[in-house]
Every structure is written in C-alpha cells, then in structure tokens.
Amino acid sequence: MATFVVELEYTVDRAGREPLHGAHTEYLRALTDRGVLLMAGPLQDANAGLLVYEAENRDRLQEILDAEPYVRGGIVRHVEIRRWAPGKGAWVAARPQAAV
What we know:
Blueprint: E1 2-10, H1 14-33, E2 37-42, E3 48-55, H2 58-66, H3 69-72, E4 76-84, H4 90-94
Antiparallel strand pairs: 1-3, 1-4, 2-3
C-alpha cells in the first residue's frame, strides 16, 4: 500500500459546497471504514481540503478521487497529489507496522 496526500482546491465557498456536502461526508466515512482514508479536513488558510489516503497505487487513488462527490459535482478546481512516506511523529508511532 502507498500513502498519498491530496489537496482539493474548490471552485465555490463552503456554502456553495453545501448541496454536495452530505454525499461527500458519506463517501469519506465509507472510505474511512475501509481503511482507505486516514485523515481529512479543511485547510484554514485556503478554499481547499487536505486528505490522506492509502491505496494500492496511483491508478487506484485516481479511481477513488474520480468517485468523490465534489469532483463528480464539478466543484473542484485543482487536485494536487503527492505520494508520501510518513516516517516520524506520534501518528506514525501509533500505526501498526506492515508485515515484512
């Protein structure tokens, strides 16, 4: 599994996202339950959100993002995807280690 950090920049403010917010929340909850979404939340200094995913590869992550209600609804202006290798910090220490 690979870890990815994704920033979604929106075309509308929070009020403009409201019609899709319920579907967005349900989608993220389902991904969380499956262990795909590790963390998510709005950026406080931008009209954007930051999400951390675990996926088999970049293609699988793209499928996940393509199904995101905000993306499907056309209110995402830009998506920035970075593969990430978290190595230090309390969150990393608390995560189970992969079998070798």
